[in-house]
Design goal:
Order of helices and strands: HHHEEEEEEEEEEEEEEE
Shape: globular
Strand content: over 45%
Number of helices: 3
Oligomer: single chain
Number of strands: 15
Distance between the termini: 5 Å
Length: 257
């Protein structure tokens, strides 16, 4: 989901909007999403397997203790490179430390990377997801904190930290992950590839469907210095397009998978 990784995308949009694309917490946020989506996807594939080791079409998934035992550590190893179901080439490892069954209030899932890259983009960082329990509407709430995040493509590096709240709006009554839908709010801050600091704020909740590799709707506002831009993820359709708007107008951009 990182626009700055696409040369074609950069050429399409004005300079100030290109800057905003770099500033959009989506660069580092994308890395965070990949940590979670990879862990969820791999864990889902091992739910019905009684062995502590499973191989999906892309990764070797190993549980340190028998599944259903807490705490536990899951290692997702993509080896020297494999293609996932969304067509991305993943390398390296994702290590997931879990304190308890994810639906239990207080459960913490800590995700770290080990030489992880996706489509030759290096991704580092730690993402911690804490189950805050059920809200007044009976829906699960999760605090998502990402620190030390770094996304590097060639000689361009973007770093970011986030503090988000994700509310599970669909899929909470099943054990499947494909029907899960989350509404995400919160803020972030970081440094873009030019060394300029920025902040990001979700002004309209970002909607994430586990069945789709992109956010399907929602708006993020990105501010650097005195300039602000918005990144609009659309009307709910699962597609790779978003609209970025800045002082020089709006432009449709293509997001990376």
């Amino acid at each position: 989901m990182v626009c700055f990784l696409s040369v074609a995308c950069q050429r399409e949009i004005p300079e100030d909007a290109t800057e905003a694309a770099f500033l959009a917490g989506e660069e580092a946020g994308w890395a965070g999403e990949l940590f979670e989506s990879a862990e969820n996807e791999a864990a889902n594939k091992t739910e019905t397997n009684t062995s502590n080791t499973a191989i999906d079409e892309c990764a070797a998934v190993t549980w340190a203790q028998p599944k259903g035992t807490w705490p536990n550590v899951i290692t997702i190893d993509f080896g020297d490179g494999c293609e996932d179901r969304h067509g991305r080439i993943r390398k390296g490892k994702i290590i997931v430390e879990v304190s308890d069954y994810w639906k239990n209030s207080g459960a913490v899932r800590k995700i770290t990377t080990d030489n992880l890259s996706i489509d030759e983009v290096e991704i580092e960082g730690t993402r911690t997801i804490s189950n805050l329990g059920l809200n007044e509407n009976g829906r699960y709430e999760f605090e998502i904190v990402m620190t030390g995040s770094r996304v590097k493509a060639g000689d361009k590096t973007v770093s970011m930290e986030i503090n988000h709240l994700a509310v599970m709006t669909e899929g909470y009554s099943t054990e499947e992950t494909e029907d899960d839908v989350f509404s995400v709010t919160g803020t972030g801050s970081g440094i873009n590839h030019r060394g300029n600091s920025f902040t990001s704020e979700i002004t309209e909740p970002l909607i994430r469907k586990r069945s789709c590799p992109w956010f399907v709707s929602g708006v993020t506002e990105i501010t650097s210095g005195k300039r602000s831009h918005t990144l609009d993820f659309g009307d709910g359709s699962c597609d790779e397009f978003a609209i970025i708007t800045g002082p020089r107008g709006s432009k449709t951009i293509e997001l990376r998978r």
